[in-house]
Hints:
Layout: E1 4-9, E2 12-17, H1 27-42, E3 48-53, H2 78-87, E4 92-96, E5 99-101, H3 103-110, E6 113-116, E7 121-123, H4 137-144, H5 147-156, E8 160-161, E9 173-174, H6 179-192, H7 210-224, H8 230-240, H9 246-261, H10 264-278, E10 297-300, H11 304-315, E11 320-323, H12 327-346, H13 352-360, E12 362-365, E13 376-379, H14 385-398, E14 404-407, H15 414-418, E15 427-432, E16 441-445, H16 452-464, E17 468-472, H17 480-497, H18 501-511, H19 517-524, H20 526-539, H21 548-554, E18 567-568, E19 577-578, H22 580-593, H23 602-622, H24 629-639, H25 649-656, H26 658-673, H27 687-694
Parallel strand pairs: 2-3, 3-4, 4-6, 5-7, 6-9, 10-11, 10-13, 11-12, 13-14, 14-15, 16-17
Antiparallel strand pairs: 1-2, 7-8, 15-16, 18-19
The structure holds (2S,3S)-3-hydroxy-2-methylbutanoyl-COA.
Amino acid sequence: MTQAHYATHGDVAVITMDNPPVNGLGHGLRRGILEGLRAALADDAIRAVVLTGAGKAFSGGADIREFNTPAAFAQPSLHTVIDAIEASTKPVVAAVHSVAMGGGLELALSCHFRVAAPGAQIALPEVNLGLLPGAGGTQRLPRVIPFELALNMIVGGFPVKSEKFKGTKLFDEIVEGDLMAGALAFARKAVAENRGLPLVRNLKVDYPHAQGYLQAARGAVRAAYPNLPAPMNCLEAVAASTRGTFDEGLARERQLFIELMEGPESRALRHIFFGERAAAKIPDVPADTPVREIKSAAVIGAGTMGGGIAMNFANAGIPVTVLEAKQEALDRGIATIRKNYENTAKKGRITADDVARRMGLITPTMSYDDIRNADIVIEAVFEDMDVKEAVFRKLDEVMKPGAILASNTSTLDVDKIASFTRRPQDVIGTHFFSPANVMRLLEIVRGAKTGKDVLATTMKLSAKIRKLGVVSGVCDGFIGNRMINQYSRQAGYMIEEGATPQQVDRAIEKFGFAMGPFRMADLAGNDVGWYIRKRHYAEHPEMKFPKFADKICELGRFGQKTGAGYYKYEPGKRNAIPDPLVEEMLVKHRAEQGITPRKLTDDEIVHRLMFALVNEGAKILEEGIAMRASDIDMIYLTGYGFPRFRGGPMLYADMFGLYNVVNRLNDFAAQAAKTPNGDADCWKPAPLLAKLAAEGKSFNG
Ligand code: T1G
């Protein structure tokens, strides 16, 4: 079936792109456009052509599902289509609505004229995929709009509404009302007025001080994007538009594009683009599953987590009641919320009215009677099953039928929590990440009896409160924390074997993590991990753990909140200062353990941390706790500061090569076997990992 429809309206032909969901310029659509153009040129009765898009976009650009497949560059390529339009002997008018992005905007720029409906999103966002506009956008856009805006749009990848370009050469007209009628009238007028066949390529970039501006821009781009090559390549491609011929600029653009297309960063960013969208798809919950309306919410607990969770609802305009047992804790919680908003307003990100409006949506209470009619209640109390039991028995008693009963537990068994109620189908886990009003990740923990409509409702709600919802099954630590537990164990082992906390942190931060494991532990509070480890010691007496972490805690060194942890901190400051006392404790501890300290390379540090995550992730995948490898990646990218330019732990393993990963696991096992208290067993490759490696396959397909 052709993906472009051809029709004639008197003396004007109309080609309508029709490749849902956003008219991605895949091979079939590219062929359909050319077939339509050829038909128009062969028909003497036709004097002009209008090109437009069906559905919700003019065109969202190249079909990124084709990338890294032969179809992406199969003829007719987008360049071939663009060349044919520019060679047309009849004027082609682009009629742009809703979205014209990437290759879609480049296609419109090759037309002789362009008209647009107001409100259309206009962008060259390829940089967000680790690419650059590879079909002439870096050469044509600076010829039709102000140079600085063109450069910023291409390097920044952000959209601008079509009406902002009124009066520029990008759009000859902004058409209010019926776009097609306006485009047909414009086409006829252009012919009647003999306006010829103007081409953007024949215009000149009008910006006398380009080189100076570009030199300054280079410094800014280098500082802003240390790990991403695409922004600088975008800048250099646009720079080529200010010198030499159009075709020389096009050649430079092509060269810079191919460099990016073949690079790991673009593969990572494209993986994220699809991964974020895939996360919302739950195979056994159809997209049309009916959802419950969430018009009001309640949060139990006004501590750090409860307050942050409440802010998410207020930010989304949903009234939320915050319940605490004690007035003093309630007052403190509400005051903290207000302070957070006021700090954001001081930075100019929201207004004083926003603060007032959001605070007006938050109602404090100490009475369960005040929350009974909430559509969803989220429990955010102490991470102890007995405490959770008391709260959920009360919620079961009080909440209206049909209310969703959610727990913010970070590790505890959601099925057990559901068993404290007579409505397990309404119980679900909503694991927010601290600070809950900032971190995008929301682990949605599906209990065995959680209703499909409850799951669909919670997934939809996650988007409403601007979170990335990722479904997890029930296990200790769900997905993120279960994996981070293995990561932390390896970090603990490595400082016992000879590394310092700062060496481990520096190595993984150089790899791209926002924060290494020991700075992270000091920030989160070492007592949090200690509490969980003590539960693990009791539940898994067979499991081996590094022992130094407990020694730090036994001294009350809980991190920033006590002024010392793995590092020391000056009063009121947060910067981590290496502490000679910790290094002395490590020397003594190694001797007690009979460990001869050795030098660990950054490579070993990074890959023991990485592959501890990956091996556990493979088990989580195999157990069905995670629905897909990209979900695990999205969790690490949005909840754990994993570097975006690497795409997540599972993609990193794919790019490293699973065969090579298994070999490294075997090396680590051999090293652990020689180390007192070392745990060689934890390096046994997960069955799924071993299978994929043996078959030469990858996690992400
Ligand atoms: N190709 C294929 N599918 C696409 C697509 C694209 N370009 N854009 C979106 N989709 C799918 C998406 O995966 C989802 O699928 C559905 O459309 C709805 O997307 C040569 C090389 C267009 C603003 O970077 O910014 O052109 O999950 O949920 O919120 O220079 O999608 O439903 O199966 O985001 O209404 C450059 C990327 C490509 C635009 C619509 N273009 N897309 O937002 O819906 S590279 C882009 C977006 C290029 C040339 C280069 C947004 C949107 P599913 P959605 P939305």
